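Appendix C reproduces, verbatim, an entry submitted by the partner laboratory led by Prof. M.T., so that reviewers can inspect both the input and the predicted structure.
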Amino acid sequence: MTPTPHTVLVVSPHADDVAAFCGGTIAKFADEGWKVVLVRVTDDCRDSVGLTVEETARRNADELRVAARILGVAEIEELGFETDRLADVPLCDLRERLVYQLRKHRPYAVFGFDPEGLYEGNQDHVRVAQATEEAFWVAAFDLHHPEHVAEGLAPFSVCERWYFARQLAHPNRVEDVSATMPRRVDALCAHRTMLTNLIQGYRLQLQTWGRRVAWLDRAMTGDPRELVATFLQGQAKEVAARNGLPHGTLAEEFRLSRFGGLEELFQGLSEPLPGAPPAPLREELDKVPEAPVRPPEKVARIFPCDIDRKVRLMGHHFLCLGAFDELKDSALFQAGYPDLLARLQAKPDLEVEAVYGYDLFCYQCGYWSEDEGRCTTGWRDKLSKDAAVLERLGIATGQVLTLAEVRRRLAERVGPEGLEHFCGRGEWFCDFKLMGRCQRAYERLQKEAR
């Protein structure tokens, strides 16, 4: 196994939250070579039964170190906020401490409570989730916390956000933790002081009900492992079954977020940074759309041998010729028409013939369906636009002009105002119009024609 150079940071409001909510996955990351940094936000000074505040804080800190070793945590950062009082702490103060940790450790991935999680009554969990969510943004802004920059901590942004919760509203990632579940159980059991307090809370609730559970009574003074294992295993089996994993699998569930609504765009346009370590593969996310596979003979039919001298276009694609110099520098145009750009040279003496029907642009376009053999955005609308454009330009089907003459007519008879009419709205709307490149090109055409 080749160790990964990446860091994962876990933001944990309390000492036991890591083991309780994501311990199997964190142990799995550690086994895969990740450096795991745990940020404990509070001091857990009141999570005990029958101890002083000082002794409680000491024991919980000691037990956290034991649990962290079990899970493979390499480093613990203590923020030291008073437990169960985060609702009284200004959110910006808490956020600043988390921004500092993000800039200091520069993690590839961060685990934490989901601000969209359901049924969360613990305000420490709620506030840490809110502060962490804001810290993701603020850490990237160079005008926030210049004192960090003075320490040598540059702005930074996390790639992956792994959210957990008592109940996730929108889970989208499942991790098989069958192999690491025993360590998750061991780690949670290591938090004996906090477990005792948790068990006591349930015992008091049962007393109010007028009942008792002997199992809980025994766990207060004996070994809690059976109780912990039963709970965690049952929870993990339910997650696995809900997500269709094989019987006997134990799983943990998350909401994994990277780029939100920009995920698909970045998948299609991103390229590796020179010298950057390889990113971990996320099967559900890293699915780059496959370009249509065309046999060489079909490509030859699409691109005629005289394309260096003559190009045949349907009417509305004459408009694209007026903005071709701008469009060819567009990342989206380059991604959509790579074969065309590699072959078509927009020289002034290039001959342009008006044709009725599909053309070179169509066969390269993302709206072209190989299966259906047609444009999927509406053939009738395209024909009406073809006719309107050719009429405006004074060009008949089959007529041949030079590119220089086509551009002169586009400048004189279409211009920015006509471009708005043909491409700006309604049934003739074009995706590229809104990006501004075509307007700039047509304004330049008009200036050159004067």
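The mean pLDDT is 91. Additional entries are available on request from the coordinating office.
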